[in-house]
User: What shape does this take?
Amino acid sequence: MIQLKVNGADQSFSGAPEMPLLWYLRDVLNLTGSKFGCGIGLCGACTVHVNGQATRSCVTAMSDAAGKEITTVEGLEKNGLHPVQKAWMQINVPQCGYCQVGQMMQAAALLNSNKKPTDQQIEDAMAGNICRCGTYQRIRAAIKSAAGEMA
Amino acid sequence: MSPIENVSRRNFLRGGVFAAGAFVLGVRFHPGLLTVDTLPQDTHVDLAKFHPSIFVGMNPDGTVWIVAHRSEMGTTIRTSLPLVVADELDADWKRVKIEQAIGDKRYGDQNTDGSHSIRSFYDAMRVAGATARFMLIQAAAQQWNVPAAECETDLHVVIHRSTNQRAGYGELAGAAAKLPVPAKEQLKLKPKSAWRYVGKGEVSYDLAELVTGKAIYGMDARVEGMVYASVERPPVIGGKVKSYDDQDALKVAGVLQTIPIDPFQPPPAFQPLGGIAVIADNTWAAFQGRKKLNISWDNGPNATYDSGTYKNELRETSHKPCKVVRNIGDADAAFAKGGKIYEADYYVPLLAHATMEPMVALAEFKDGKVTAWAPTQNPQAAQDIIAKELGIAKEDVICHVTLLGGGFGRKSKPDYVAEAAVLSKKVGRPVKVVWTREDDIKFDYYNAVASMYMKAALGANGKPTAWLQRSVFPPITSTFDVNAVYGDPGHLQQGWTDIAYDLPNLRIENGPAKAHVRIGWLRSVANIYHGFAVQCFTDELAIAAGRDQVDYLLDLIGKPRSIDFTGVDYPNYGASLQTYPWETGRLRHVTEMVAEKSGWGKRKHSKGSGVGIAAHRSFLTYVATVVEVEVNDQGEVRIPRVDTVLDAGLVVNPEATRAQFEGAAVFGASIVRSGEITATKGAVNQSNFQDYPVARIGDAPLQTNVYIVESDAPPAGVGEPGVPPFVAAFCNAVFAATGKRVRDLPFTSLGFS
Assistant: This one.
């Protein structure tokens, strides 16, 4: 039996320990904000926080999530919107939106560790998150805007 | 009163689940949130107290329901068309609720592709809004016993100024519902000066849901009792299963059963590809079980296809006389006179769509009927193929449309929706088919591989005295007709037969090519390879002639005129040439404007940096783009800046349009940098983002400036037209920066990255 916390709530899982966290979140807990994009950690659509670190849930086995605190977009902010979400709305970042939860989880983790990232730091931190609609210039702007609000 | 309480629970569950808006929040995370129901589909619009049209309805609380019948894949169309209705209705946008239509022929065309949603439905949406407004005014006039002509509307109210009377729309809904629906001729559409939303735009109706993870895509659809499927398909198109062993697959925890799917009968069209499906109680178990299948394949007639050999064959064909699709003067005679003759071959490989959401669909077959939930651009085609595959009537197929995690044309082809329905019938439960990224890359309907041969003779001042262009590519029609080898007019028109240049001797040809994979349409389609060849060749000629590229381009476009298509099979994207003439003056204008906006010829470029320009009309929209690049000694290419000017006639939603052109630049960057699908022994070699890379944040333009030409011309497309000029301008910029000419895409062939 694997014990873990998801968005602050205790959960236990008795299924296959090698099952990726993404499918546990999506198919078992029905937390569908985290998306399936590539299944091998190349696109970032599945990004969640594991003990505060941005993590690709599609390549994180349940056994590796044991004892950890998982935060998904559904638990990113208890009240209202996280500054990153507000900035994403203000800059009107999403097109299809499918990758944006992963983008925002990645950006939120970046801003947690670096309050005022440079352009290069933003690029380095976001390099693992693909947006096929091509919203990157707005992502850059939104991260700067959120950094301003969090400062 | 909340909108939920206005409708029956049955209808709420059936019709409301995928409609975004506040009412979805309450049920979103409940398991089993969808119910399967094959009763006739009533929308909130149909059930509204006052519903003068299938597109708009209103309740006494003032809530306006508007049907979005086109699919939302990121273009904001689900917002922009309802915005047109709301404008003519003079409705308060905050009181508008949008619901997504199921596939239903009463809405007309629902295939959300070809960048024509606004063009095709702008008038219909205006009429829908104006009709409702007309009837609300009539209702108020009757109540007040004043002439309707003396009444006017303001945000969600009817007003009679001289008697100082006002009535909210909701109060009038009941009375308006009793009035006859006026004929279109009785309506008076708002003058432009009175427009509230059109031309000003709005952000996506779904924006809050998109940033909170609450938006429901096809991948997120669930129904009670559903199972998950993953399908091992024949690795070569047209192949089939010889034998298979599923013993190990069935041992995987969570795997319930395996099911064979029949191979298709050519042509493939939208039929499932066949193979073996693994059914499981969660997605991951289905994936794992599938890896344990042991299948022996008959690879069929395409097993000898090799994309490298095929490229050479296309090129050879393009070097021989082909079918003439447009001719002016006598190019051969002009070439025979000698002078400076230039030739070049251009090549664009097969391209995959790689939508961020892989193909996925949920369907339930029950009592001879099917209900499907799918991220589809084309729900009516999904109905058709499901009906055909299962031998039932189209009317017995309900196709709900979820949000789409990207589309780009791939999700117009509902093969994946048909798979879910076929499997549900065999399993006896609702089945959700989930494609892996590998499935998506390997079993796409690829944008055609194309080879273009270009030849020009330059005369005085470097202007071409003769111009010959031949393109050879497996046509999209091959997906629907096994004998099709030539380009059809609908794709030859795309930047090819409609070349903008004023040339005395012009011959345009197209050669035959047989398809060995499924060919389909991808954002901008044939414009990608045609625009690349024409606009890069133009750049080559300008340089050969020692001319400034902007000056040369304008010289070739010539005087403002409407292109004469006499004798050419030129469909003009389905629009009439009277309403949408091909106006070279508009192409000139965007070219001149982008030169000015980008500071063409005025900015200094250091070593390793440079700019390129291209101009192209597609989907009736005129675009010119300047791309700036920086290339370091390792051949790494950055794109610091893009300027693009578009003339799309009337632009309903400028904000969404800017976003589309920003995105088009990134889409084009992927094509130039790394877009390439290859095949060996008939099977596609690429599988995921490691070998089919798409642009990441550092690969994309740092800044794309989008300028929209103010125009009262009728609306044209905005989703696709940004891609073709970007691709060519990017390659022209790389030449300016490095002296290396990109003729074969992707540019990795020259060592760039």
Remarks:
- Chain A is about 40% helix and 15% strand.
- The two ends of chain A are 41 Å apart (CA to CA).
- The first helix of chain A runs from residue 21 to 28.
